[in-house]
Predict the structure.
Amino acid sequence: MDRVSITLTSSESPRIRYGLELITAALAAQGLQVRHEGQLPPRSADTLRILLGVRTSSEQIRELEDQDVLLYNTGAPGEGGYYLSHLPGGVVVVTGGDDAGVLYGCQELARIVTRTGRIPRDLDRGETPDMVLRGPAIGLQKTEVEPPRQVYEYPVTPERFPWFYDREHWLRVLDELFDQRANVIYLWSGHPFSSFVSLPDFPEAQEVTDDELDLNASMLQWLTQEADRRGIWIVVKFYNIHIPLPFAEHHGIPLRQPQPTPLTSSYTRATIGAFVAQYPNIGLYTCLGEVLQGDLYGKEWLLETIIPGVLDGVQQAGLAELPPLILRGHAIDPLPVVTAAREVYPRLYTEAKYNGESLTTWNPRGEWQEQHQFLSSLESTHIANVHILANLEPFRFGAVGFIQRSAQAMKHRLHAQGLHLYPLFYWDWPWSPDRAEPRLRQIDRDAIWFRAWLRYAWQADRDPVAEEAYWTEVLAEQFGTAEAGAAALETYEAMGQIAPLLVRRVGITEGNRQTLSLGMTMSQLLEPEAHRTWPDLWQSHAPGGERLQEYAEREVRGDAHLGETPLDVVDDIRHFAARACAAADAGNRHVHRDAEEFTRLRQDARALALIAEFYALRIEAAAIVLTQRALSVRGGQVDPAQLTHAADLIAESVARYRELAELTEQTYRYANSMRTPQRRVPFRNGKVYGHWTACLPEFEQEAVAFAAATREIAAQGWPLPGSVPEGADVVPFRAAEVDVTPAEGFDLIAGQSVFTDRSVLIERIAPELAGVTASRISFEASSAAQVALEVDLPESGHLLIGYVQSPDPEWLQVPDLEVNTHADDQGGLDPVLKSALEVSIPAARSDETRRLWVDVHAFRFPAGQHTFTPGPGAYLVLGAVAADQEFSHRDAGDEGDAPPDLLQHLLTSQLPEGATR
């Protein structure tokens, strides 16, 4: 046959039209004459007939089904699925469950023709994807904040985001994603609307010029059309409550809006409605947490502002059906919000993070697994979000076995129906962090990352042996030989285990606070709670096991160890590091193509091996110190030789770190893509401490101080002579004038009650607070809901807030940067004085009295009037102090004749600048 006739039996759409183009081009490339016809032509010996259409809207395809001519041996194609079959009589059917399925059927047939030069006469295959949404997040965001704007706030302009206007770049991205059958792109922004729509009623909200607005609209419409041709849906993500800077300035209101107001609600409803009306084919994806206090106001904001705005836009655009609205289950309890919203907006999708803000395990469990399973049970599309990947930065990740198992967990245990995939270096899209000229694009450098996740989101349960052969062939094509491909795959697989093992067992958090590859201080390993750990990291995003502190306690007691221990991780990371380096070295001589990239892969393997050894040595040292401390606490004898050995291990770890700094100085621009003050581990400020070369002096200083402390103990024994503390000389805070309403002032002295309506008495108070005038608020009101304070400061200063040391929900809880990126915008995240007050609370049903400690946190405010909205829960208002007040961050409750603490002595001899305890 030298002719092909293609008959479209359902209505033509941009996706089907693109599929027709693919088939036509593939057949024409084989020298065949291709005609498009409106009706299926009669049989002809020299013409192959192709019947193409959506099965549910094609009468001819339904007739073939009814006649038992077209039979679906792998099941009828569902949403996004396709089926190809060469039927008797010289008819080839290309059908799908919808337009996207037909497009993928055309894509698959074109691939077969290109690969084999023909359409097989025994063709009979079909697939329906496991996940109905599959695609990456791309951030309209920057690596650094632009004051006075806040995190996420970036108007879309050519100066900020030149790549957004680069149509050639977009076509490369879209073609690559279509090749992997991605069908969604999530564009992330804090508040995109003011860059894409103008509002006659709110002209002050527009953040770009009129010319930029027209350019943005043209670009977004073009992108939407080109994506749609390839079966890709554009979704725009926004936060709440975010407002444009010029809007805030015009109305004289703070940029940060933690609760709804009539003004912000009216504006937000109007801008969402205008956006939906102007861009009806773009999806919306909202986060109710972070700035907005989601548990307090999330349901109200969604039901009374966001959804009405969407419905306004639907009405203006005359849409026949509601567009899907994705709700992110972040920083809120999703149950009441989702339950209420589904009653008024049935096309509600849901999303939750897979491993938090990292990749740690293919076996998520605990509360996060339960949340996914609940959201998946709501008879809607639930999306698993592979988010941020803070622990993997900045290196390549191609552990395809790890990725496949993760996709299987999403499918079989979390019951997710969608994948939301972050790039490996999200904040600096489209560039990779490599020192290379020209700069490498992530879509190219990290091709295996995108391809693996999208492959297994399409179909997770593939044969592992066949998958190893598949990826070896893919990498052999890249590097020129089968031997090089096999070596690259082994390198990727082994490298990919190191960071997940480390962060889940000894990390502080899986979130934006920690750059794992830059290391951890001994304080962070030995007393992680002092650095505000994120327990979900090991309770939900790790297999069962022990942290370092528990490991040491069990060692001293002689108890059997449980699950994965830190010392198990030491063995594992050394094993995988050795495997990765050996494979990369062995494969190097077989590389015939793309040698520069293989060299970079080899350098990554070497860097991760050095990171693994740095951590292994420090974990071994930490285990020794914690074991000696546990013995000391029990009255046992501290072994100075063991502490000296720990100091030697730390010194050796710094030597490995020095090698790492020398290597990465040549290979990477920086280690973390979010270069903001939210980065706190190992050292504060991700811009200042964004590279190994910047961190090296701090680790060197720490090692010197630790060695000096151990030499002191070796010379004098433990406890050191005169080491029992006799109390500390402290200087009272310098009080500042402040007026707080609604509240009543009182003196901070023993015997005073700290609330207006409940007897919570001061029993003990730190001398720093002498002379500070506090303010009483209502316990009942603040414990039941948020109490907003109006704060008037004649001069700039710090408002002192007391957080009770209790997890009970009646008390205000310190926020987390993991769920609220703005939590430390005014300071206040870490206590400036721990255990500053001891208070007594009569028990409700007995004669017993509870005693609780109170920590003091300081929130910065400029002179003027401000609204303080910390969230739900009772708290103490402890007055104000001068703006230049220095804080010791000491623990005021740790006084008297307590025995000396070995750990504290080792850690406080000399802390590196920027390190925290």
User: Anything to note?
Assistant: The first helix runs from residue 14 to 28. Residues 910-917 have pLDDT under 50 and may be disordered. The two ends are 78 Å apart (CA to CA). The CA atoms of residues 399 and 748 lie 58 Å apart.
